[in-house]
Specification:
327 residues; alpha/beta; globular; binds zinc ion
Length: 327
């Protein structure tokens, strides 16, 4: 029976149910938080807040969220363990590294950086770190990572981004764990990712191209779907440089073209993200865990998407993505 690792242990993939494939709980800048903790306040209050927001989500029938918070986004799983113990929800945690340009200084003089000086190929320590998170668990917690995460943004395939993506690909091949990638579809970075992933022998059906829903270019998204990728239509509610309708209509159009099997839905929401001034957060009232169920699904149904297609995007595609992921 294929299983997925969650914050409360392995879960049969058949039990995942309706799944939001990209939701954070806390996104933090630990270095800043450790020195200026005033805004964050109390850990207990933040955990209680997360429990109450996630409990609202379970009331709508959601059974699983995938939390792609990794190094670079302030991953701290002891806190997620506390949240998970108090909510009836599968939380799939991730390993990997989040950067748009360079690797963190920690990695500058390790691994491949030493190859030239030592006159031999030095393996990247990231690969063992990621594989360890998947096989043995993360930092002494009971949680094993259930997916791998990296990023590419408008800066493109910089040496740092490529180093992380190749390490993620190697860890994927060693463990069978699926991959999610933050992308920037406006500059078609999915195609740049495709080159590197294919060179590393990754099965693109095990890869979500995150934030694909940020574009309304149906032809570009169709091309990525044809290549095998799952498209993350995963920022519903972030209506800053776009609109509710634009985000929903591209899903309608791709369903009309026959690509329901190539999409997953989510919101990229968080209970607390320290990247954004609380004032700005107050301008985004729909950026929350319950937005898809409250507004997006009814809109999709009114505009020609069938309940079958919604089940495909929320239940069947996530299950298929994780199948075989039990390392
Ligand atoms: Zn995210």
């Amino acid at each position: 029976m294929p299983t997925v690792q969650t914050a409360r242990g392995p879960v049969d993939t058949a039990e995942l149910g309706p799944t939001l494939m990209h939701e954070h709980i806390f996104v933090l800048t630990p270095d800043v938080q450790q020195n200026y903790p005033q805004e964050w306040g109390s850990d207990d209050e933040r955990v209680a807040d997360a429990v109450s927001r996630l409990t609202e989500l379970t009331a709508l029938g959601v059974k699983t969220i995938v939390d792609p918070t990794v190094v670079g986004l302030g991953r701290y799983l002891p806190r997620i363990e506390k949240v998970a113990a108090q909510v009836d929800l599968n939380i799939v945690c991730a390993t990997g590294l989040y950067t748009y340009d360079d690797v963190p200084f920690f990695f500058h003089h390790r691994g491949p950086a030493l190859s030239e000086a030592l006159g031999q190929e030095v393996p990247d320590p990231m690969v063992d770190m990621f594989v360890g998170d998947i096989r043995d668990g993360v930092a002494g917690t009971s949680i094993k990572a259930g997916l791998l995460k990296c990023a590419i943004d408008h800066q493109g395939m910089t040496p740092g981004v490529e180093r992380v993506m190749r390490a993620v690909a190697l860890a994927h091949r060693e463990t069978g764990t699926p991959i999610t990638i933050h992308t920037h579809p406006g500059s078609q970075q999915g195609l740049a990712a495709k080159k590197v992933l294919e060179a590393e022998g990754v099965d693109l059906r095990r890869v979500v191209l995150g934030h694909s829903g940020d574009t309304t270019d149906a032809d570009h998204l169709s091309e990525l779907a044809e290549a095998g990728f799952l498209l993350g239509m995963d920022r519903f509610g972030i209506n800053l440089e776009t609109t509710f309708e634009a985000r929903a209509d591209i899903v309608v159009e791709l369903c009309r073209r026959g690509y329901a099997e190539s999409m997953v839905l989510s919101q990229d929401a968080a209970c607390y993200i320290d990247w954004i001034d609380p004032f700005v957060m107050s301008l985004l009232p729909d950026w929350k865990y319950t937005h898809i169920h409250e507004r997006v699904l009814p809109y999709l149904l009114e505009n020609g998407v069938t309940q079958d297609q919604i089940d495909t995007m929320l239940v069947h595609n996530p299950r298929r993505y994780f199948e075989g992921a039990s390392a």
